[in-house]
Amino acid sequence: VSDASEPLSGHLRRLIALKGPLSLADYMSEAMWHPTLGYYATRRVLGAEGDYVTAPEISQMFGELIGLWCGVAWQSIGSPKPVRLVELGPGRGLMMADALRAARHVPGFLDAARIHLLEASEPLRVLQRERLAGAEISWHENFASLPDGPIVLVANEFLDALPIAALERTEAGWRERLVDTDEPNGRFRFMLGTVPSSAEALLPPSLASAPLGSVVEVSPAAIGFVAAIAERVVTQGGIALLIDYGPAVSTAGATLQALRHHRRHDPLDAPGSADLTAHVDFATLARAARETGAAVYGPVEQGTFLARLGIRERAERLQAMAGGEKARAVRLALGRLIDPSEMGTLFKAMAIAAPALGVPAGFEETGSAES
Ligand code: SAH
């Protein structure tokens, strides 16, 4: 137990003593977002010195291709002026910086684009402001406060950071995993709720009769965001690209993980000291989006998606321009982004679009495989 996390652990113990065991979603929200003691308030999150590395941190190629994708997406919705270029959870702002540089090649796009970032972390907003100096940007606390108009929206590793509920199938039915203190040592441990949970309504139909003992995670927050995005593109026009990690088909299993200094860590040990994420359930999110009338494309594996957008060609150019050590770094980065043993297959891209726009770049056909 690290010193820095002691105050938050104490706070959580008092909360549990007062109110009883916490839902996993409440535990995650406190661990990540407690205004003074939480992970985002206290720690340098991303990058080589942080706790985890994301695709935009691995290589500029990632953000560049996303930027070109955004420009082409804008054309596909009729090149509206203005267009809201929205990013959810921009981290250190690298993806947007690389995207804006590449998007200069799409005539008229940057003149039309108004940049809106949804970011709840004040320290990360500061980094974003520095990284994107020179661009005109507005920040938002929540999705509903975005001004009206068509959107081109991107989010990388945003949904995996949202709170989840974990349900376990017992003889008595589905019960929610709650976080309790383990007296007398004061550590945290899981226990099962004794009454049915409202999260049960979000279970994917394909897993409703999973074997006894199965654990299924659901994210009301992720479903809420995706439904809001889908409704927005249907009513006001636009398209969204969501990239994250998780299976294409809803799958049972506890995937909540904590990363600290690039190492796995027990999610219940020293809350606030590690980043908490869980697999994204693309099939459930696709269903939520389709219910609003939006078209859903994918998910497509990240390796396939980036290859279709031309990452190999981009890597070759960068290697030729750089040479030597730098060329080697580009080759390594390419592998990390697209190889199946790295991020190539676990990570996936899914698009949500106003109906009847046609297939977005990098996708094939309306994916309705998971019903
Ligand atoms: N997209 C970045 C960072 C991913 S980390 C990258 O790929 O490197 C998750 C990001 O989402 C962080 O910027 C975090 O502060 C933000 N975030 C997580 N939950 C949020 C919420 N509920 N509202 C707004 N931002 C949130």
Structural commentary:
This protein is α/β, with parallel strands linked by helices and 371 residues long. It has 13 helices and 15 strands. The protein has helices at 6-19, 24-33, 39-42, 55-58, 60-76, 94-103, 109-112, 122-131, 220-236, 282-290, 302-309, 311-322, 324-338; strands at residues 22-23, 83-88, 113-118, 137-140, 151-156, 165-170, 173-182, 187-192, 215-218, 238-245, 257-260, 263-265, 275-277, 295-301, 347-353. A hairpin with a 2-residue loop joins strand 11 (257-260) and strand 12. The radius of gyration is 21 Å and the shape is globular. The mean pLDDT is 93. S-adenosyl-L-homocysteine binds next to helix 4.
Write the topology of this structure:
Elements: H1 6-19, E1 22-23, H2 24-33, H3 39-42, H4 55-58, H5 60-76, E2 83-88, H6 94-103, H7 109-112, E3 113-118, H8 122-131, E4 137-140, E5 151-156, E6 165-170, E7 173-182, E8 187-192, E9 215-218, H9 220-236, E10 238-245, E11 257-260, E12 263-265, E13 275-277, H10 282-290, E14 295-301, H11 302-309, H12 311-322, H13 324-338, E15 347-353
Parallel strand pairs: 2-3, 2-5, 3-4, 5-10
Antiparallel strand pairs: 1-7, 6-7, 6-9, 7-8, 10-15, 11-12, 11-13, 14-15
Helix pairs in contact: 5-6, 9-10, 12-13
The structure holds S-adenosyl-L-homocysteine (SAH).
